Amino acid sequence: MQNQVNISYGPEGLAALVQQLEKNEYTSLYVLVDTNTETHCLAQFLEQTKLTPTSILTMKAGEENKHLHTCEYLWNELSSRGADRNSALINLGGGVVTDLGGFVACTFKRGIDFYNIPTTLLAMVDASVGGKTGIDLGPLKNQIGIIQEPQQVVIDSTWLVSLPKEELRSGFAEMLKHGLIADPNYWGELRALENISPDVLKNYIKPSVALKSRVVLEDPREKGLRKILNFGHTLGHAIESYFLVEKDKKRLLHGEAIAIGMVLEAFLSIECSGLKLNTAEEIKRTFRRFYPKVEITNSDIESILALLRHDKKNKAGKVNFVLLKAIGVPDIDIEVPQELFLKAFEFYASA
Ligand SMILES: NC(=O)c1ccc[n+]([C@@H]2O[C@H](COP(=O)([O-])OP(=O)(O)OC[C@H]3O[C@@H](n4cnc5c(N)ncnc54)[C@H](O)[C@@H]3O)[C@@H](O)[C@H]2O)c1
Ligand SMILES: [Zn+2]
Q1: How would you classify the pairing of strands 29-34 and 55-59?
Q2: Which fold has domain 165-349?
């Protein structure tokens, strides 16, 4: 079992980060940002911490850059800017920066220390917690990576102020997921929210982080319990990948895709895990309130199902799901008969 990662909050968290950096006496310090967090977060971060990094490393924003070519660029940058085994990398950004930056740090000279400062809601409640680092391979998500905890994670909701609304909503999907898989009360509170502004959501970040940390601590390498975090993700990832590569489709954010995935998998839960129909309807209604319906044609569905067969969690060609017996009661390793998939998309499309 791995040690509990050091997660701290707000300005005190940043102060603790500075202390730990000083204590570790790194030979050099790098801050990775993307083109958006460079604009919106970097100056404030440097001002608040008074850090003077050796270099700022900037990657292009966006999932399409969560690829090997960006890693190669960053390994070269680290190397030419004098990084050694006793250097450290601070990832200041969303899940793309924390996933990719973590992977770059874990592989550079067989691993240097790294720190996560998540600046999107999704990275705060999900991506920066749990030690999964990695990159995509072609259209397939997170195929290459390492499980390694950062030295420290500092979560500060003030970054959310500059975050576009749809990005906030994307992270909110993971919070709803946390309620669905583990805590009916939390689900109830979130689904009753009238609006999801940073000011409202900041109160719900800690419970989500605590929930994810608890699951990860018990099962860091996803042998059992951790699989529950994949609720909505088996179909959700396939949908996300499909909309990412289809040039004439509007891109879906991660949370938007898994919001669809959760509705589809709620339907599968009725059929395979005994979830009550009215609970599945409640799940659909809740997601519909926050996420407008996405048109998915029959030919889209065919391509999505083809991608599904590539999903990394499939064992021996079988598609395994995490489903729900009830809200807060997940059911792992459920094999779903393929003929139910089309019905699930019909359930999603219906009013
Ligand atoms: N490691 C894990 O356990 C885990 C879990 C969930 C998701 N993920 C990964 O996380 C990624 C998605 O994360 P994300 O939604 O944070 O995406 P992201 O990193 O692409 O950030 C979303 C957008 O917001 C911008 N941005 C970030 N912070 C900002 C701020 N404060 N103000 C203004 N703009 C800002 C980014 O530049 C980007 O354009 C996916 O690649 C997903 O696979 C990983
Ligand atoms: Zn997710």
Answers
A1: parallel
A2: Dehydroquinate synthase-like, alpha domain (1.20.1090)
